[in-house]
Amino acid sequence: MKLDKLIELLKPTEVKNSQNTDKIDILDISYNSKTTKSGDIFVCLIGEKTDGHKYAKMAQEAGAVAILAQCVPEGITVPVLLVEDTQKTISDLAGIIFDYPSKKLNLIGITGTNGKTTVTHLVERIFEYNKKTCGLIGTLGYKLNYNDTYKDAKHTTPQAPELQRTLNLMLNHNIENVVMEVSSHALAQHRVGACSFNCAVMTNLTQDHLDYHITMQNYFEAKAILFKNLKKGASAIINADDERAKDFADAVCDGVRILTYGIEKDADVKATNLNFSTYGSSFECTTPLGKYKVNLQMTGMFSIYNALAALTTAISQGLDINLTLKALEETHGVAGRFEAITKEPLTIVDYAHTPDGLENVLNAARKILPKEGRLLCVFGCGGDRDATKRPKMGAIAEKLSDIAIVTSDNPRSEDPQQIITDILSGIKSLSPDKIMVEADRHLAIKLASQISKPSDIVVIAGKGHEDYQILRDKTIHFDDREEVRNSFGTSKV
Fold it and tell me: Is residue 334 part of a domain?
């Protein structure tokens, strides 16, 4: 795209060094001077730790032919497009460069504190069973179809240029539907500002990311952006049992179809007569299309909520109900989400890293625990993240576990011992038979293997699918599933 055409569409407040803009071709977008290429427009993003304006000259030297900035960086001779907020404008820029691919796709956004990854995968599977193409973008990466391997997307919801580039790639592969996780960070940082969603799904809203959002109201407002931006004719899928359900419903404009799902309250799609076992769960489901018996290969109350969210989404998309239920029933689950690794004892690896997530996972494990068995939980909390959830998670582990082993998660720049101290502050009884501390996560999992019995259930919570651990000065390979197999290893599922 010619720079003068881009300026016309983007409408910056001012353009400096504006000569020859009709002869400059913009080939791509960059916001990291180390990866800037010839023909790029470099965007000076202002982050929590650095200011992109400091690297504009390096980007120019690397081949950037234009700069998008909030002020004119020193030493810049190429055109500078001045805007009030580069973080917001980069989304519009990406939309223009890639010609707004989402407008030609059926884009479904899944947001909420917990369940996003599982629901996106269930929706993807449902489209596949209905013989419709569906791409996926989320925590595990992005895929062009169900059988594709994951490509790294860096973030749960990629930055705007990567997101628009990925959507454009899917469009070029003749994909018609895309389901993606939409994080609160992405919404607050305008990463999806150039996206046109045909459907938005709310799984739940519980405490998380308060290190960034500060208050739960701010957290809600970020999530609600997805629903406020829905256009007439779109669908909003809302968990009726969540205490903020009405607030999400009130956020949508007139002409948006609202469908609810739930277990406790009246909903358009409602589950009753729930049963749980080690091997799955079952329920009866009342829908606008009739009443159905559903048998899942996933267990736990949260699994039923996730299935209801996906089912309600499918109904909103006019997909075949019988094929949809078949897809749900034949899905085993998602990597690192209540994933059973060994049988005796039953070891479960889960991504739960919030108070609500940990409570849900431990309650699910408790429901399938043999009478003679004990529930063991190995968990920690991430560093450089919301510290207020640490004592809450400690209290939940104490209440719901027979034995809790407190350890490290991703400590990042924080002292692991301080994080553990914060967790222990929420625990009333520090009996060594009930509460154990082992800062080394490898040794903590090994300890669980040494003290567990065949009839026990051991939950390893916090990291799920992750195959790394972020320490103060480095990132190392670390996979809870590998650790469990190495320590427990005799009775693989």
Answer: no
